[in-house]
Amino acid sequence: xxxxxxxxxxxxxxxxxxxxxxxxxxxxxxxxxxxxxxxxxxxxxxxxxxxxxxxxxxxxxxxxxxxxxxxxxxxxxxxxxxxxxxxxxxxxxxxxxxxxxxxxxxxxxxxxxxxxxxxxxxxxxxxxxxxxxxxxxxxxxxxxxxxxxxxxxxxxxxxxxxxxxxxxxxxxxxxxxxxxxxxxxxxxxxxxxxxxxxxxxxxxxxxxxxxxxxxxxxxxxxxxxxxxxxxxxxxxxxxxxxxxxxxxxxxxxxxxxxxxxxxxxxxxxxxxxxxxxxxxxxxxxxxxxxxxxxxxxxxxxxxxxxxxxxxxxxxxxxxxxxxxxxxxxxxxxxxxxxxxxxxxxxxxxxxxxxxxxxxxxxxxxxxxxxxxxxxxxxxxxxxxxxxxxxxxxxxxxxxxxxxxxxxxxxxxxxxxxxxxxxxxxxxxxxxxxxxxxxxxxxxxxxxxxxxxxxxxxxxxxxxxxxxxxxxxxxxxxxxxxxxxxxxxxxxxxxxxxxxxxxxxxxxxxxxxxxxxxxxxxxxxxxxxxxxxxxxxxxxxxxxxxxxxxxxxxxxxxxxxxxxxxxxxxxxxxxxxxxxxxxxxxxxxxxxxxxxxxxxxxxxxxxxxxxxxxxxxxxxxxxxxxxxxxxx
Length: 631
Known about the structure:
- The chain is an alpha+beta fold.
- It folds into five domains: 32-65, no CATH class; 69-273, Dbl Homology Domain, Chain A; 287-385, Pleckstrin-homology domain (PH domain)/Phosphotyrosine-binding domain (PTB) (PH-domain like, Roll), CATH 2.30.29; 405-481, Zinc/RING finger domain, C3HC4 (zinc finger) (Herpes Virus-1); 498-629, Roll (PH-domain like).
- The protein contains 16 helices and 22 strands.
- The protein has helices spanning 32-38, 55-61, 67-104, 111-118, 121-141, 150-154, 160-183, 185-195, 205-209, 211-229, 237-273, 370-404, 474-481, 498-502, 586-599, 624-629; strands at 40-41, 47-48, 287-296, 303-311, 314-320, 329-336, 341-344, 353-357, 362-366, 442-443, 450-451, 458-462, 468-472, 505-515, 521-528, 534-538, 548-551, 556-558, 569-574, 577-582, 609-610, 613-614.
- Strands 6-5-4-3-9-8-7 form a seven-stranded antiparallel β-sheet. Strands 17-16-15-14-20-19-18 form a seven-stranded antiparallel β-sheet.
- Strand 15 (521-528) and strand 16 form a beta hairpin.
- Helix 3 runs antiparallel to helix 10 (211-229).
- Residues 1-57 and 610-631 have low confidence and may be disordered.
- Residues 421-481 form the FYVE-type domain.
- Keywords: Cell projection, Cytoplasm, Cytoskeleton, Guanine-nucleotide releasing factor, Metal-binding, Phosphoprotein, Repeat, Zinc, Zinc-finger.
- InterPro entries: DBL_dom_sf (IPR035899), DH_dom (IPR000219), FGD1-4_PH2 (IPR035941), FYVE_RhoGEF_PH (IPR051092), PH-like_dom_sf (IPR011993), PH_domain (IPR001849), SOS1_NGEF_PH (IPR055251), Znf_FYVE (IPR000306).
- Residues 286-385, 504-601 form the PH domain.
- GO terms for molecular function: guanyl-nucleotide exchange factor activity; zinc ion binding.
């Protein structure tokens, strides 16, 4: 526990039965325990200074703390931490919340956003600052005659419902805080201004908002320690035990919230380390492990430094960035846990190696030691096992549904069997994982499936429920009404993996690209067979989401090279849109132009042939295999 200067109410302390203890010091500025460590007292009351004897001998001479002194010390720590806690509550309530509310009342951002972020912090602050803290201060002032805290803490128990409400809202508050910090410059500026003040102690608003979540477990810890020192027959024991029983129940919920908030804080840290480019801050993503690793290149087995972030549902394979400030890593590949395998490998030249293979990519990795290798393999296998277990429960739930599902003819006429919430971990329609914040569980009233809000955002009258309007899933809505529902964002137009496209493309390879007069940047460009009139641009060959897409139909193609242009450059233009490209060589440029000139007319282009091979097989410096060795 933290160290504090402990203050006793008088020079003469009392035993727990009220009788006086031996006078330990003339000073009134320290507790008996503290004073015992500073001075020794003669029978005539004079103080002796510490001798210059070795520390071991001095410790042996120190009188052992009495039980009464230990109890006083715990009570003093409770008071000191309560003072610090009230200061934090005041910062949240009277500074952050008040300043943001003042700006919200001007119409800059919604008032409800501020209310939902800070929840009932005002009520919590009022209780602690006006009741609990003053009560503790009075009790410590009269400790000589009333050495007890159980009765004081019992006053806290009826107000623990306030903490339950705060903890329940915590995930939502963190999400709103992130959302509006990104969305509103004024919102962000107010928070940053307050965070830069001395009263914040160089800590973020999120850190301070965690204080109420952590406070209840703190009470539990201090009470347990207090009860260990408290005699069985002490009059305060009954009150203290009763308080501990109720506070421990509340602490269980707080500890769960702490684990969630710690995970979200870690996700935020990683998000910043990746340059805020990877969308990983999601309650369904659980951080597992991170660390440096070496990657063995496929061609020459040279080892290259890489960094891994392992989550419950994916692995981020990253390259360190050697720059002052800014992002620390660049994501090369995102590999899903679904279908992943991990095996140990043996290599005489490179010890401690293992292989990670997923649907997206295979990696041969080298750990720093045998212990490090064992740790990584264990983390991977445990993560894969848990993922498969959850997936299996999902499949079993689907199997059970198929056995008792309502037929199309009975849909809406007969009440369905509802799938239990705990039988599934993801939406039974779109397969997205559920979480307590952004993707909650809902039931389709027609088929009984557990679905997310996006997949249940339809209503129809159901005959079995007296033709009352009920929420149903997309499929049931289509069957019951004959109307087709738009799929929504099952997978965005840009959310197709580059590797998936590249494997069945008319043309793919690296091109330099810029829009209008911006600087050229290197992109992995793909014209897929299935969407042969669209050009997709990725930052890397293994990216799971394109940076942009260009529908080629109707564009004009200009391959004249101007004095300021790069060699082997060409342009696509339509109205005010101008896209500039540059190939590695003139030959590659002509192969691209051959495909693009057909696509802009609306015709289906053919794969250009080079020595009998499909154009997917680019030159060595332009192939996906080449990028594998360098990644």
